[in-house]
Amino acid sequence: MHVVILGSAAGGGLPQWNCRCPICSLAREDSSRVRPRTQSSIAVSPDGERWLLVNASPDIRQQLFDNPAMHPQEGLRHSPIHAVLLTNGDVDHVAGLLTLREGQPYTLYATSGILDSVNANRVFDVMAADVVTREKIALDHAFEPVPGLTVTLFAVPGKVPLWLEDETMEIGAETETTVGAMIEANGRRLAYIPGCARVTDGLKQRISGVDALLFDGTVLLDDDMIRAGVGVKTGWRMGHVPMTGQGGSIAALAEVEIGSRVFVHINNTNPVLVEGSAERRSVEAEGWTVAHDGLTLSL
């Protein structure tokens, strides 16, 4: 199984277009200290030729350009991307669908809750119904979006997208609006969970034994954004479990049998983004890799 991390940042990317926090500023000034990163997305293939795109980032055009395996390979119009899968309805995971509108056939997969939110917005009708097939997938039901690649979606603690929040919103509920994906090919298993509000016993049981885990690394500490002076929301309020601190993912997953451990969906205020920083070293010492755009895994 071939895995390419197309985008490793959270919403807004790095540097965020309007942000002058220390990390964004350093990304503009010295990319050897902080690598610029695009918004969250991966591509997975059983054979290196047919690819499943998991989440369609607003940066998808650049991401596909930066990865030659995703380029058109034959004829005047072609794409190695055979299918697209959504793990939630956040803007940083669905806005790229508007770029994938140029008459290229593929199938869009998501749960009913996620796909209903896309279908309700008519701007996504630019994906013509006679070209892009939309398939609703039930939780815990295995399906094959690309021949040789099996996917099972499962609920993880999360919340509805920001643009759907209201007074009834519940943070940490396990519903079909925030899901993880268990992806299998050739006897290998990858768990992709770019958004998660907390680590539960059920989640630990679900991912035990996987060959690789790509997990929500939005914030290092719950109050990263507050410390940086650019926001008032905590990681918990945003529906993202912190890496460290009480209930943090590093400690919660420490005893779970996992192959490669990789943090993805990393917010621009997270200090682990700084190469060689004490925060980066501490995370790496716990056996975790901090993802960057273009990082590949061969499982």
TrEMBL record:
It comes from the Bacteria. Residues 50-266 form the Metallo-beta-lactamase domain. Pfam families: Lactamase_B_2 (PF12706). GO terms for biological process: pyrroloquinoline quinone biosynthetic process. This is Coenzyme PQQ synthesis protein B. May be involved in the transport of PQQ or its precursor to the periplasm. Belongs to the PqqB family. The keyword rRNA-binding does not apply. Keywords: PQQ biosynthesis, Transport.
